[in-house]
Amino acid sequence: VAATARFVARNPTSRSLHLEAAKSLPGGNTRSLLHNAPFPVFMQRGTGYEVISEDGHVYTDFVGELTAGLYGHANPIIHATLKSTLDNVGLNLGATTRLEAQHARLICERFGLDLIRFTNSGTEANLHALQAARRFTGKRKVIVFTGGYHGAVFSFPDQHPAPNNVDLDDWIVAEYNNIEDAQLKIEESSDVAAVLVEGMQGSGPCIVGSDEFLHAIQSSARKAGAVFILDEVMTSRLAPGGLQSIIGLEPDMTSFGKYLGGGITFGAFGGRADIMAIYDPRFSGTLAHSGTFNNNTLGMAAGYAGLSQIYTPETCMAFSSRGDVFRQRLQEATSGTKMTITGRGSLVGIHFLVDGCKVLRSVADRKDDNTLKDLFWFEMMEDGFWLTRRGSLSLILDTPRSELDRFVRSVKAFLDRHNHLV
Ligand code: PLP
Predict the structure, then answer these.
(1) What is the pLDDT of residues 277-317, one digit of tens each?
(2) What keywords does the record list, in alphabetical order (predicted)?
(3) Domain enclosing residue 8, as ranges
């Protein structure tokens, strides 16, 4: 209660902007995840690895735009690319461009895809990957997993699809990291077109899929004649060839999004040539795939510049190692408490669990201590850290080591301050 009162007192401008916004937006915003009680913080601008609120508070940005903000808010290469695209190419040209072809080639090379198509978001990428799988197999059902999130209309908080999901009757939900349950559901259900899974569940936050589980469902999908789709919208940043290259998976299709558009709206899906041929308009009976902004010039140019000039394989590996060290330090700082740290590379999950469980295999194991979780969010903001309330951190490339150190110190101080609760 005291933390909420301090929050209200520190953010009067956000409060009044929220009340005004709620007159035209339900709840005063457009992204459910960003609504935080008692009202969302309004940010005014970002610069480098920081965001500055309408109330003038400066935060180190650990939201990192849910992984899309890898390059930070003012990366000079991204900035120059956007400017030169505006100056020399223009906004969408209502036509196919070189920008789209060069970005497609680079992503195919990096992630080992035969063919790819672009969309406006990760949600759309998954929608199309599923359509492709259905057309290719002539089947309809899709196996997904508890805790999975594949976009705004595909979320599976538990055994049931969320009520706003598309195709409500077509989902079969198996338990994440439970090989037996997954094998049974994949191999014994009829009409399975696809198995759709994240190698690490981003909105868990950061519940890691075991190598054995992911390999087992890949083989079961093959046995069942279903298309195995790996959702790498969040995880593609974890290694030069994505999480699949770390685990040795060979998905039939992969979906992408986030930073691969350089910070501009972006999505993509691709994989095996025989499946993707479904979209080749030179053949008859093909599937149409349209979208005004699919090949938007700014996203194609910024995405390509980011991947070719900034997030090179060497930078990607160094950044992931940096994230691993940071997470290890947080794990040491939180051992023996209700605070649990999960994740891989530059993606970190923070949990407050009533039973202090340290190994999270599925959302079913996650018994949240919501009071502590909320208190942590409020107090980290007072220390100048911008985080998602659910506890996911997505590191930005140029966040200095000193800020990572400061965060570890802040976490320790939080745990000391509330040692009777944690
Ligand atoms: N898939 C995963 C694993 C995601 O984390 C997200 C977004 O957070 C999506 C898909 C949807 O991407 P978008 O928000 O671009 O629609």
Answers:
(1) 999 999 877 899 999 999 999 999 999 999 999 999 999 99
(2) Pyridoxal phosphate
(3) 2-62+312-417
Residues ≥6 apart with Cβ < 8 Å to 394: 62, 63, 64, 65, 66, 67, 69, 70, 234, 346, 347, 348
71 part of a folded domain? no
Ligand 1 mutation target, pool 234, 237, 394, most atoms within 8 A of CB: 234
d(CA 99, CA 110): 17
Q: Are 301 and 316 contained in the same domain?
A: no
Q: How far, in Å, from the CA of 148 to the mean position of ligand 1? A: 10
54 CA distance to ligand 1 centroid (A)? 27
| 253 and 122, same domain (yes or no) | yes
Among the atoms of ligand 1, which is closest to the Cα of residue 202? Answer: 5
Residues 213 and 357 in one domain: no
**From 129-138, 164-173, 396-405, the region with the lowest mean pLDDT:** 164-173
Q: Is there a single domain that holds both residue 284 and residue 343?
A: no
**Model pLDDT for residues 37-59, shown as the tens digit of each residue:** 999 999 999 999 999 999 999 99
pLDDT at residue 16 is higher than 80: yes
CA distances from 308 to 60, 86, 240, 303 (A): 26, 20, 11, 8
Shared domain for 330 and 181, answered yes or no, is no
